[in-house]
Design goal:
This protein has one domain: 60s Ribosomal Protein L30, Chain: A (2-Layer Sandwich). The protein is α+β, with helices and mostly antiparallel strands. The protein contains 3 helices and 6 strands. It has a 4-stranded mixed β-sheet, covered by helices on one side. Helix 1 packs across helix 3.
């Protein structure tokens, strides 16, 4: 079954865990994003898919508040060219969806992801089962 969702949350790329002598932790901005996204994912009551899946994710990255109105108008809807790697955005979403939308992220056999500039950040997610593989 195809599952589509839009999450009104500004995407944050995954970051590496920090290791100290007292333990391991993620930076606060990323951990806050994960907690908020997991709460949004929990609001969609679906049974995790046991099949192989194809995931389509669009990241609408919020433009900096310091940008001029003219620059924002020119950039909105265009591909995002910020410094964050798209694979880090993908990792953040797939790790949060694991156990909620699918049992394990090894079920994801194909991904299509895109980054766009937007006035308000959001993530659109679509999950399609792969039949016959």
């Amino acid at each position: 079954m195809v599952h589509k969702a839009t999450f009104n949350i500004a995407p944050v790329p995954a970051s590496r865990p920090r290791v100290t002598k007292w333990g391991t932790y993620f930076p606060k901005k990323y951990q806050t994003f994960r907690d908020e996204l997991e709460a949004l994912l929990d609001s969609y009551a679906i049974t995790p898919n046991p099949e192989l899946i194809y995931v389509k994710v669009d990241f609408h990255v919020q433009m900096a508040k310091s940008w001029s109105k003219k620059r924002k108008a020119e950039a909105v809807g265009k591909y995002c060219d910020n410094n964050a790697d798209i694979d880090n955005y993908i990792k953040a979403v797939l790790d949060s969806a694991e156990g909620r939308y699918y049992n394990n992220d090894k079920q994801v056999v194909m991904i299509r992801a895109r980054k766009f500039w937007a006035l308000e950040g959001k993530i659109t997610y679509e999950q399609v089962p792969i039949i016959g593989l």
